Amino acid sequence: MPHILHIDASARPGIAGVDHHGSHSRHLSHQFVTQWQLRRPQDTITCRDIGQRPPSIINHDWIASAFTPEEQREPWMKEALVESDQLVDELIASDIVVIGTPLYNFGMPASLKAWVDQVIRAGRTVGIDKTQPDDPYIAKLTDRERHAVVLTARGGVDMAPGEAMAHMNHLEPNLASAFEFMGITRIHYIAIEGQELGGEVLAASIAKALRNVEMLVSELQRTFKDAPTPELA
Length: 233
Fold this sequence. Notes:
- It contains 7 helices and 7 strands.
- By secondary structure, it is an alpha/beta fold.
- A 5-stranded parallel sheet has the order 2-1-3-6-7, with helices on both faces.
- Strand 4 (about 125-130) and strand 5 (about 135-140) form a beta hairpin.
- It is globular, with a radius of gyration of 19 Å.
């Protein structure tokens, strides 16, 4: 039974099409989760709204604590990592990570970058083999198949890989690097474009993205339905 971690990173609290100045990325993530639950109500979901409640930015105490072996950490170090541990636990527990995020100034929102910094953790999501200095990093989230679903909203157009403005889009490549570094390599992308243009351009992009969300939900649900069930001991 797959577990979904649903993350929204938009600074806009509402959903486009429902709320004034609502978020298009929240619209996509809401549609994904809603359609998933309609077909598989037995599956569990953890929701985290980092757009409204951003994770802490890492600081000196966090760095000193994260890079100290667990058995050597002092009480203040354990306290410094409480939030990070919770976010890492949520990620490890998930089978599908659904991220609704806008493209802000060519990259991800600060809240999403803070989440990435909190969950890339030596010893928890990434191992370090000091005997291999040329390539010391070992992805630790490879114990089972996990998927990441990246649902984005962009003000401009033609920003997908291979398109004219792709060089201005550092959101999806950055997230891909972060997920793959931890061992999540099955990444799916759907985007709404043209928010700043509006009109027919935006309407057509929304309609296409919603169709793609529906198809992706069906595809992933088939994947989990066909996956072998572990034998009980």
